[in-house]
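Late entry, written up from scratch paper. The run itself happened at the end of the previous shift, but nothing got recorded in the book at the time, so transcribing now.
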Amino acid sequence: MPALIFLKECESTNEEILRFLNHTKADIQAVYTFNQTKGKGQYGNSWECAENLNLAFTLALPAQHLETQDHLFNFRTALLLADFLAIMTKNRVEIKWPNDIIIKNKKIAGILTEKKKLGGINYFIIGIGLNILQKNFDHLPKAGSILTQTGITLNPTKVADSLFVYLKEQLQNEIFVEDLFENINQRLFRKKMVSVFEIKGIRQNGIIRNVDEEGFLWVELENQGLQKFYNKEIELLY
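Output as recorded:
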């Protein structure tokens, strides 16, 4: 069975990948489609995938291959995807904490990471939704694609092939925590800029200062001073 599998259509690549894993061999596998009908996002959200314009991609990585601590995996994946897209597009790519991928103030990719045990093997499951050729985002004002944000027309199949090779190589490399978060902070969306945040239904101004090595976002708020937040405790409005 090939390591990278194309599906003409599926509901969710994160679910489909489970059918292809060989539970007697700890191999790295991936599936992708350009027509995902029920994509999953973080925390129960959905991810829309316009047919034949965007990429839904999932990679399953046996935990034994991973040189990153479990709780850092989400950030490691976001950084690798940002670096990959920066290489592909020659544009600045930013990370909206914790793992949305931004080009020129628009979200072009989302990530859903999960850990599952199948056949006695622990796997990290990386689901990526990447907007490549879509032009119309009238119902999603914060979204964009590689095409809308850079003017670059990429072949989705070649993107999938290149992404698989890049992740397979990079995820098995060791990385130190300090280096990981130094790079995350260099790409952090709206860092050191006055922004509007919503906390428990209340809006106020603040400035993102950094992400620490435990994954908390530190924001200097206009009314409360420097505070740290975990995901879903604060929303950046942009």
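The longest helix spans residues 73-89.
(Scratch paper discarded after transcription.)
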